[in-house]
Structure of glucan endo-1,3-beta-D-glucosidase:
Amino acid sequence: MKKIHSLSSHLLVLLITLTAIATPTTITTATTIGVTYSTPASISATAQLSPDRIAAKVVSMNIPAVRLLDSNPAMIRAFAYTNVSLFLSVPNPLVPLLASNRSLAMRWVYRHVLPFHPRTKISIISVGNDVISYSPDVSPFLLRAMQNVHQSLVDLRIYKISVSTTFSFFNIVPTAFPPSSAQFQQPNGEVIIRPILQFLERTNSSFLINLYPYNMYRSSFSIPIGFALFEEFPFNFRDDLTTGVRYRNLFDMMVDAVISAMAVMGHENLPVIVAETGWPSSGIDASEVDATLLYSEMFLKALLTHLRSGSGTPLRKEGVSEVYIFELVEKDAKQGIRNWGLLHHNMTSKYSFEFSDGGKARSFIELFIGCFVGVVLLYLLM
């Protein structure tokens, strides 16, 4: 009897230990990783890419978030009840109109948000995309348009959808290294960006940035390819002598440059969303020797691993809150354009790795432990 009691005690201890192992503990929150998508009109006409087909593919790939570069109502509807979070976009030409006429902002919300919310999970609206480079004439209207869209949501008692705008790294951060010395380019920094940062802080929104290590690598001969591709080589690092921080990849260095620039303006704690990033699998012409399928796969695979590790960046341990890979489906395969897509025109994968984390190894372990725990419990109850 004592042996049975002793065995039961040991099994109980083992049960508690295995339960502790099986229970996930989160120390840092990994970044949400999504993709960008533009409507079928910009994709090969030979592929029948209906909104329902796109939504089904995104769900099958376990992609949690999608940035719609042109917010097609049919596409927004297709994501209803999928639990995929949508990042909507207001086209640049509409920015002055939404700024000057509040009723037009309400009309945009009525057409793109109200019919679908909350069945479709809409998380954020970007009013314009890289407006500063799109047209200097549009930039002064940016904040007013954002305010009108935000107020339209509030008037409709929709409080969980934030409003922001998307900037391009190269058009607002002239110097990325050292990151601690980065500042927003003037006069846009004071005239355009500072008031927007204040708005984002006040409305609990995020700073959105298009950030391409590929473009930074191409613009500087001093950056080795391994540093841009997250490779773990002995000399693949750059030291910020001001802070003593060592950077081991270009992505983190660029993110921290944005954070430093925001800190100069007193907004270092604003959440940052990387609205676009990626590495092209083909270039505009033969001079783009590093725009290859091999390098594209290396970059994407390493980026996903880095983001899922939850290690963040040297200046922001929690990292960026979301990252969107440009893009889900590639454009026409023809000369003169870069291809970035994760999928071919026929919706088959271009890469050998799975975009989704999947958690297959962990799932097997948890299943095994779950079965064992069940057997132990059954024994103890007998």
